[in-house]
Design a protein that fits this description.
The complex is a heterodimer of chains A (249) and B (417). Chain A has a 5-stranded mixed β-sheet, covered by helices on one side. In chain A, strands 2-1-3 form a 3-stranded parallel β-sheet, covered by helices on one side. In chain A, helix 1 crosses helix 2 and helix 3 crosses helix 5. Chain A is an alpha/beta fold and 249 residues long. The N and C termini of chain A lie far apart (53 Å). Chain B is an alpha/beta fold. Chain B has 2 domains: 295 residues, TIM Barrel (Alpha-Beta Barrel), CATH 3.20.20.70; 104 residues, no CATH class. Helices cover 41% and strands 9% of the residues of chain B. Chain B has 16 helices and 10 strands. In chain B, strand 3, helix 2 and strand 4 form a beta-alpha-beta unit. In chain B, helix 2 packs across helix 3, helix 3 packs parallel to helix 4 and helix 7 packs parallel to helix 8. Chain B is globular, with a radius of gyration of 24 Å. The N and C termini of chain B lie far apart (60 Å). The C terminus of chain B is likely disordered. Classes of the chains: A alpha/beta (249), B alpha/beta (417).
């Protein structure tokens, strides 16, 4: 078993796939740099991220996978689940050897890619739903999130299209990065944590009023006679509550 | 924001919440003008403690009403606080909630004050202001008020994504009894007008790309369940007709919440029929997505749904001669009819079996509910249900092996038989 280390980036992952084919590695265990623990007898290989190689692999995948198949592959990568790279590699091997393999759900790697990507897309959808902007004194609508998976790259187009006429910032507190829209483009930003998530950003005057109105509304659309807490929590898991205006206080 | 707006919001959202429609999907309005908002597949931004989706700012423009419908909190004879929003207040709330990502848009309904035209004109004005003055491309659902002029109805279609008029009571006789000021013909009229306009708009759009959008998310309606003595068959036949004749996008079923001591209605201590509501929705899904004809599910010999089990299972138990189905050979149409197999697993089965024959383990991994499906299928395995079980036995086996949400509330009735 060869341990293959890559830098954790998408291009790095694709470069790694290239090397596995090029070097004809048989049994590998893929580890991102951040999880790498050197072991004494290890047979370790470090992959250099190479844009040309990664582009070649992606081109190959494009010819073998449907659009949704590629999206699912990328979503699984964003899941950051430990060991996912190994599943993805066996998925890719299937894809390159059998026509239409992305639908061969009898294969455990193929089914797993389908299932994990579904989880990631569910989280993406949740973030599109659960982001709560607050208007700051600098006219920026800002929100803090802690998604289970690294879904900011996936939600970016949605927010860019929707909030085209307001400046906004969505910050992933878990992964210490955010996306910021300045009325023209979206760029990735990094902040010193304490500024963003302690809410020390100054809010605009009417902001609190709208939060109160929203809470009022939320409480008044509820029908008490139909109370169903189990369903409530199933749809709105508790781990999301701390950033949901209507569930705070 | 003044305290007065707070009060209004409380009163007018309280009054609007019995309309269960929450959908914000089916439109295709894009943010073409670098304005605010964009519509897509619909998003539930939150969920109330009763487990319902909060997708739109759902409010009445006013709860003043000239009608006296027994089942409605806003009825004329009810002693409640009355108030009204101004157009500007609704516009302001919608925009500010939307900008904070609280909502997908606005669902605006209203009590009938003065007359239908006067009311409809106000609703249209809100939508127009949002679209034209504020370049708002989020979702707008307006009520079409029976009795309003065609011209206003047309205007509404130009600015709204969805329009709806509620059937309210599934049978004509029930409606006459509970809502003496309304009649079925009056309710159907705007629905019919809009249907024709929508069809015409879609045809024009096929020819001229620049044709303006007209109610891109179509029409929906709602029926109150359990306020009058209708059977499930009455409800679903009405529903089927609405889908076919008026091309509705959705029919909603709203279990009656007792809000009145009126003798014509179930008493104030009656529970909301949520189980029945759920079975009706399942039936609705079977009609729309699973290729079932309504008469297969409900008919003269079987006028009411079995509350204990889902309608597909119930149908399958009445049609044992069709089963078992071979998972590796049957066409999608038949696979969709197997209890415990949903749309997604059916499609995955059909895709996956091109590569290998599927066995029980594969099916389980694909998401099939084997506790129900196993009595109705064979697959690539010598192990299948060989016992000669009766429908009643199968039902009991499934019920005893599952933890139905409804079991505890339904089982007391079993002892009657």
């Amino acid at each position: 078993m060869i341990k293959v280390i890559y830098d954790g980036t998408w291009a790095g992952f694709l470069s790694m796939v290239f090397e596995v084919y090029d070097q004809k590695y048989q049994e590998v265990n893929i580890v991102p740099d951040s999880n790498y623990v050197p072991d004494i007898f290890g047979n370790d290989v470090r992959i250099t991220t190479d844009q040309v190689k990664s582009a070649r692999v992606w081109k190959g995948l494009k010819s073998r996978l449907s659009k949704s198949g590629r999206e699912n592959l990328y979503a699984c990568y964003l899941s950051e689940i430990k060991g996912m790279e190994n599943t993805l590699l066996s998925f890719i091997k299937m894809v390159f050897s059998i026509d239409g393999a992305e639908e061969a759900y009898g294969d455990s790697a193929v089914l797993k890619v389908k299932q994990i990507s579904k989880m990631v897309y569910r989280e993406k959808h949740r973030m599109e739903a659960f982001v709560r902007f607050q208007l700051t004194a600098d006219d920026i609508y800002y929100a803090v999130v802690e998604p289970d998976f690294n879904v900011l790259p996936l939600i970016l187009p949605h927010f860019k299209k929707r909030y085209a006429d307001q400046k906004w910032l969505i910050y992933d507190k878990k992964r210490h990065h955010g996306i910021y829209y300045d009325l023209r483009d979206v760029e990735e930003v990094y902040f010193k944590d304490e500024v963003v998530h302690t809410g020390r950003m100054d809010l605009q005057e009417p902001e609190v009023s709208y939060q109160v109105l929203w809470k009022d509304y939320f409480n008044h659309v509820n029908i008490k006679e139909r109370k169903n807490n189990k369903l409530h929590i199933q749809h709105l898991p508790k781990r999301y509550w701390k950033y949901l205006t209507e569930k705070i206080g | 924001m003044s305290e007065r707006v707070r009060e209004k919001l409380k009163i007018l959202s309280d009054a609007a919440k019995y309309d269960v429609s929450c959908s914000s999907s089916g439109s295709n309005r894009k943010n073409h003008n670098k304005g605010l908002g964009d519509t897509g597949n619909g998003i539930c931004h939150s969920y109330t403690e009763d487990g319902r989706c909060v997708s739109l700012l759902k409010i009445l423009l006013t709860n003043f009403c000239i009608y006296d419908c027994a089942y409605c909190v806003t009825r004329k004879s009810n002693d409640i606080r009355r108030t009204a929003f101004t157009v500007k207040e609704v516009v302001d709330l919608t925009l500010n909630f939307y900008r904070r990502n609280y909502i997908e848009g606005l669902f605006l309904s209203s009590g009938i004050f003065k007359d239908p035209d006067y009311t409809m004109e106000r609703l249209v004005r809100v939508a127009k202001q949002l679209r034209v003055e504020h370049k708002f491309n989020g979702y707008i659902h307006l009520k079409s008020i029976p009795g309003a002029s065609d011209e206003l109805m047309y205007q509404a279609g130009l600015y709204a994504d969805r329009l709806s008029v509620n059937i309210e009571i599934p049978t004509e006789s029930g409606l006459k009894l509970l809502a003496p000021d309304k009649d079925r013909t009056g309710i159907i009229k705007p629905m019919n007008y809009l249907k024709d306009e929508i069809i015409q708009n879609r045809e024009e759009k096929n020819i001229f790309k620049g044709t303006p959008l007209f109610a891109p998310a179509g029409q929906s309606t709602q029926m109150i369940i359990g306020a009058s003595a209708e059977s499930d068959k009455d409800i679903m036949l009405t529903s089927d007709e609405l889908y076919k004749k008026f091309r509705l996008k959705r029919v909603y079923y709203s279990g009656y919440v007792p809000i009145s001591g009126d003798k014509r209605l179930p008493g104030l201590d009656t529970a909301v029929p949520t189980e029945r509501e759920n079975r009706l929705y399942q039936t609705d899904w079977l009609m729309r997505f699973y290729g079932f004809n309504v008469h297969e599910l409900l008919n003269t010999t079987f006028p009411n749904l079995d509350q204990e089990i889902d309608p597909k299972l119930s149908w399958a138990l009445r049609n044992r001669h069709i089963f078992p189905v071979d998972i590796n050979k049957a066409d999608l149409y038949m696979i969709l009819r197997v209890p415990g197999i949903g749309l997604q697993s059916a499609n995955r089965i059909v895709a996956a079996r091109r590569f290998q024959s599927l066995n029980w383990e594969n099916l389980k991994a694909l998401g099939v509910a084997l506790n129900r499906a196993r009595y109705f299928i064979t697959c690539s395995s010598a192990d299948f249900e060989r016992r000669n079980l009766s429908g009643t036995q199968i039902k009991q086996l499934i019920l005893s092996a599952s933890q139905s949400r409804y079991k505890s509330s339904v089982s007391p009735q079993l002892s009657l038989f």
